[in-house]
Design brief:
The chain is mostly helical. The protein is about 60% helix and about 5% strand. Strand 1 and strand 2 form a beta hairpin. Helix 8 packs antiparallel against helix 15. The longest helix has 24 residues. The protein binds coenzyme A.
Length: about 375
Amino acid sequence: MERSTNGLEGVVVADTLLSHVDGERGELWLRGEPVERLAGRVGFEAALGLLVGGALPDAAGVEQIRALLARGRSLAFERLPRLGDALDRGDAMDALRAGVAHFDERELGCGVESAALLAGIVATIGAAWATKACRAPDPSLPHARDHLRMLGARAGEDEAAALDAYWVTVIDHGMNASTFAARVVASTGSDLVSGVTAAVGALKGPLHGGAPGPVLDMLDAIGEKERAEGWLSGELAAGRRIMGMGHRIYRVRDPRAAVLERALERYQRALGPGGGAAAARLELARGVERAAEHLLGARHPERSLRANVEFYTAVLLEAVGVPRELFSATFAASRVAGWCAHVAEQREAARLIRPASRYVGPKPL
Ligand code: COA
């Protein structure tokens, strides 16, 4: 039998029409559209329509998806009293996993409908977990704006535009661990909610979606960019990884880091002179990234370890008022659309995913 590939690097497990990731060139396309062309130009509604429905929706299509997202928020809000202790979990991702499991595929429909409903549901469970007294959704508002309002954050157009740019950027990303988990579950013929629940569990891990909270902890601990090199050297000497740096696929800087950095710049310009704190934070993040890149480059010259999506996710979500404990769940509020699209694609492939393992234990005596 062949040697095992721990971590499945380079193993192609599906043909997909959804997203293309080129780790050497630093490219991400969603249904053929480069991510940098979408983020900041279209909202989350349109990106969801593109990914799940197959084409960028027109204005009427965007309105329909907006209404579905609002219905998802209402569905979740009405269900909150029945979620029992799901919302009391100490970790937002535990709450999300338990909360999502309360829904049934039969009430969610399929295609764009189920993806938009679930995106509304995930965002609302996150807001309810974070605030412990969730405000009722306002269906007249666009999704990002209403989500920020439900969180009790500043919910102006500029904040919503920044959150939208983030959600568009992270909606799908090839065969990442949570997507793979969803596809494995779908391949057994199981239901959509089971696939999404498995994906939430995979996303919880710090090597996948759990890095942006620790990125902010790192920025807090460093405080000023002149201290970055010393602090980071200490972490590396202690054998710890620098959060927000490195990626399994990218050998160049993650293209999503640049997209989010630009979204932050736009947000700061919109804030004008009032955006001093956010500007200082971005400046610090850039200094820390430079120092981390330098140190990791010296330590691992064979492997390019550059900023990944989580690095600027942390700075952007903090700037628009999302609490750091909710960062992974906020990521899930977008990626759930990707999971749904992959579940549908896997169902069409109609093939059980069942790899092999290589037994390396003792033989019977
Ligand atoms: N900080 C310090 N060292 C790192 C590192 C980081 N962020 N990322 C990778 N390395 C080191 C590893 O320790 C390893 O060194 P070793 O061979 O001396 O043990 C080497 O680089 C290769 O790393 P490897 O574990 O093979 O890379 P991977 O492809 O499995 O890892 C990540 C990809 C994302 C898991 C990894 O880069 C990481 O842990 N990053 C921090 C967490 C993070 O930001 N996650 C979000 C991802 S979007």
